[in-house]
Amino acid sequence: MYALGMIETVGYCAAVSAADAAVKAADVKIAAIEKVIGVRGALGVTLHLSGDVAAVASAVEAGKKEAERVGTVISAHVIPRTHTNVAEMLLSKFTLNSGDAAKE
């Protein structure tokens, strides 16, 4: 079973920086990106990462550190052995399509 890591930022720049640092730090996949207009019109972006528990924990830590350097982090969390229902019901609304991801 895989882990789910989340990094929630204010603004897209901090989220992209977190994503870049996270995937460079460990063997994880960007599973989804959630964008929400929050308090006072600020854009909240939650980055969802998947992979094995150790890789996700390492990636979340690296991504959080980079996002804090660039902007504001609301929260970061790792859920080990995420239940399949979480991915099916929650992440399916935000899952990336192959055309959405930047080419390497």
- Rg calculated over all Cα atoms: 13 Å
What's the SSE pattern? EHEEHEH
| Largest sheet composition | 4 strands, antiparallel
Query: Strand fraction band?
Result: 25-35%
Low-confidence runs (pLDDT<50, min 5 residues)?
Answer: 98-104
Q: Quickly count the helices.
A: 3
Strand order of the largest sheet: 2-3-1-4
Helix/strand-derived class?
alpha+beta
Q: Give the N-terminus to C-terminus distance in angstroms.
A: 27 Å
Report the oligomer: single chain
Helix content: 25-40%
Overall pLDDT confidence: 85
β-strand number:
4
Shape: globular
Structure report:
The chain is an alpha+beta fold and 104 residues long. The protein is built from three helices and four strands, in the order E-H-E-E-H-E-H. It has a four-stranded antiparallel sheet, covered by helices on one side. Helix 1 runs antiparallel to helix 2. The longest helix is centred in the middle third of the chain and has 18 residues. The protein is globular. The C terminus is likely disordered.
Structural descriptors:
4 strands, alpha+beta, 33% strand, globular, 4-stranded antiparallel sheet, 104 residues
